[in-house]
Design goal:
Number of helices: 4
Oligomer: single chain
Mean pLDDT: 83
Structural class: mainly alpha
Low-confidence stretches: 132-138
Distance between the termini: 22 Å
Number of strands: 0
């Protein structure tokens, strides 16, 4: 990777995960029947953290000894920092308004990420022989 080049964005290939991200927010917004800018802040923050999931998994696989290649690792580091920074940037105004319970939800989800990573490293194949995660690229 060149010093000044920006690597190709890394996004999830699982189309169902987009629905898991946005459908609850859309349903909640419709049900509330009131528009709030806080919902958009939360949506953009969730999107940033959601997008960082695949690059972070790539980094964790490298740390676990499963080689991902130097170019892929460099791109994963770049995009995990960029995506996570977007998530943090959009959540800060909500923290300033006193929505601190969001922090505990984030901590819980971080522990789920770690659990998921350990599970996929320990059991990389299902009974069908397919890899349990598509991010390995094989």
């Amino acid at each position: 990777m060149k010093f000044n080049s920006i690597p190709k964005p890394i996004i999830t290939r699982e189309h169902g995960s987009w629905a898991v991200l946005f459908v609850p927010m859309i349903v909640g917004g419709v049900y509330a029947n009131v528009f709030s800018w806080n919902v958009l802040l939360l949506a953009f923050s969730a999107l940033g953290v959601f997008l960082s999931y695949v690059p972070v998994h790539t980094i964790l696989y490298e740390l676990a000894g499963i080689s991902q290649g130097q170019k892929k690792l460099a791109a994963a580091i770049f995009w995990s920092v960029a995506y996570f920074a977007v998530g943090v940037l959009f959540i800060l105004p909500l923290f300033a308004q006193g929505f601190w319970l969001l922090l505990f939800i984030g901590i819980q989800q971080t522990s789920e990420l770690g659990h998921n990573h350990l599970k996929t490293v320990s059991f990389p194949f299902f009974l069908t022989g397919q890899r349990s995660t598509p991010i390995l690229g094989n």
